[in-house]
Amino acid sequence: MRIVGFGQEDTRSLENTASRTVTVTTPVRSLVSINFERMNHALTYYNDRFDLKPGDRVFVTGKLEGVIGIVESVTTKFRIKISEYQKVVSLAQAPMHGTYSPKGNMMRSYDSNALSPDEFRKWILPPAAIDEDAKEEILFGDGYEIPLEDPSTADGVDPAVFDRAIDLCRSGKIGYVSFRNGEGKAFVRGSKWYEIDFSIRNNMLQEAYCECPYAGLCKHLLAVSMIISVMRKHDDLDLDRDFTLIEENQFWNMTRHIRQDITL
Ligand SMILES: [Zn+2]
Which of 46, 81, 207, 216 could bridge to 143 as Cys pair (CB 3.0-4.6 Å)? Predict the structure, then answer.
């Protein structure tokens, strides 16, 4: 099956734009109702930059700057005083390529042009935060080693933390995992998105780091080890190949915006 996004353009010319952010269709001025995480009601924003649709993930100006919001509804029928409204400033998206197969609650690809960690970051962080992160100096201590045969046997596993890691796996909080050219990356959603680095050697996750503040072997690292471990045991993941895994809801949300085509 081939899924093509709403772009009507010639796909040959789009292939040249692979490394750039997808340009959105002609902006349609609108008033949009946006829901933010941990808020129980939607807020209204003015948009003049994008052709927004319900389900789009956006960033806005004002108090909720940097918090990702989901568009609930869009109307072009309005009469407003512009000074009274905050605005939509960016649409979280990145190009999608590659062939994916559903495996459990993850979509798996072995393609070298599948969504990269940097592209995934564009879905979860506003452009300003990505720029700031790039400037930040990052220090690494010793990393963790986690046996993929049975992650619960890793040194320093707290059984209560292990249970919470199982909850993360079950509830689809592992948004992204990739292993390419010897470098592993994952993004797990807790109270915010946490980034994980690792390598895989001798059937172990090695040099595994999570950026969350927990001082110990955290649920995020255990959850990523578990999903790799379980998929490998069920022959859903070949660790001798470079791979990319995207959580299914995240994946389908992303494909709403594609301008390049992907294969399933
Ligand atoms: Zn963590």
Answer: 207
